[in-house]
Specification:
mainly alpha, 13 helices, 59% helix, 261 residues, single chain, 2 domains
Amino acid sequence: MLPFIKDVVSTLQKELSDLVDYLLILSNAAIDENDIKYCTKSIKNFLDILDRYTFKEFSFIEIAIKEFEELSREIIEEIKIKSRNFIEISNLQYIWRLIKRLYLVFENNVFIANEVFYIRSEIAGKKTCLPDVLKDYLKIGEALKDEDSVKNLKNDLARLRTSGNDSCAYYAAIIGPSFLGKTQTAFTLSHVMNVIYVNLLAADIVVQGSDGSLSQPIYNHFEDFSNLFYQTIDQDLKETENNAPGYISCKNSGYQTLGLL
């Protein structure tokens, strides 16, 4: 866990704002404009993520910062040194090469590359209250949350944590036929623990009706979120399908799906 997370966010915001100003100076110095524009846009997108943490709208901030630092820190520090703290524009060719490297790492940063993380929720702005179908699931969950079976399920899920690492998250898949109660189980558990609900059926055109709607109304409200997971899972599978089983353990760049989780 990052120490003094508010201070870390504040310091990073200041540094990245200075870097954006410096990129503007570089764009006027005839450095490759497309690379500059992309890097500027990417940094502004990440600044939006940091702003959303300030307003309590983003819950993955520590993971996002760690990803950003691991991919970008070395390059940004080198730019900072060569430009004497984002002021001078000497060594332009060398700095241009650093910008090219920054461009590439931003393309591999799951929080920057996926728009869902930095575009403010249009749904949140349009809806003043939860849809009735969501209210129904939550209301039933409220009534069931103190049942022994729910307590037992929560305890069983907790055993999925990595031994000796209380900060490690866990996830589970509930598999079964339609109308078994999988979705209700997730919404019931949401009353006793933090739950990120992903239903991949919402991304599957096979379960859509002739009018394009999904077979259960609840799915429609998770379609965009589920599509994001579907795309990352598909990309990860394509990347690993031609590699040996041991490839997973030695892969350094990380998986998009795990980045989301």
